[in-house]
């Protein structure tokens, strides 16, 4: 496996608080044109959505006595948004997508991690804004945040 970075990924407990602190209102959140966030950030809704998912996953993982982190290679060519590990090191890999649909490109890092971890990877999941949960033909579970639960 390539070297992984040790740089932490930060999330505020309340994504709405993060938006407020950054001076992003509802219009700017949806349009990607907040006054205090660089225009290259695009739609600013993705970061708060990922924070909301992270908050939920951390709550469920704590109840299951599991730890939550993320994976990013040092050269940033590979990244998985959330890695959940239990005491036996069984691993759940989660990507967060602010979309109702999931493409092959969206799951490429999950598949790569599956190749690296083999049997240690219990499942691969993409959390979306879609209305239905299903499993893709490649085995990746797609779960709307609204259906996420312990």
Short description:
This protein has about 150 residues and is an alpha/beta fold. The protein has helices at about 15-20, 25-30, 45-65, 110-115, and strands at about 65-70, 80-85, 90-95, 120-130, 135, 140-145.
- Low-confidence runs of at least 5 consecutive residues: 1-5
Shape: globular
What is the average of the pLDDT values? 83
The end-to-end distance, rounded to whole angstroms, is 31 Å
The ordered H/E elements are HHHEEEHEEE
Total beta strands: 6
Q: Total helix count?
A: 4
Main pleated sheet: 6 strands, mixed
What percent of the residues sit in helical stretches (DSSP H or I)? 25-40%
How would you write the strand order of the largest sheet? 1-2-3-4-6-5
What class, by secondary structure content?
A: alpha/beta
Radius of gyration: 16 Å
Strand content range: 15-25%
Walk me through what this model shows.
- This protein is an alpha/beta fold.
- The protein has a domain at 65-147.
- It is 27% helix and 22% strand.
- The chain has four helices and six strands; from the N terminus they run H-H-H-E-E-E-H-E-E-E.
- The chain has helices at 15-21, 26-31, 46-63, 108-117; strands at residues 67-72, 79-85, 91-96, 121-128, 134-135, 141-144.
- The chain has a six-stranded mixed β-sheet with strand order 1-2-3-4-6-5, sandwiched between helices.
- Helix 1 (15-21) packs antiparallel against helix 3 (46-63).
- It starts with 14 loop residues before the first helix and ends in a 6-residue tail after the last strand.
- The relative contact order is 0.13.
- Residues 1-5 have low confidence and may be disordered.
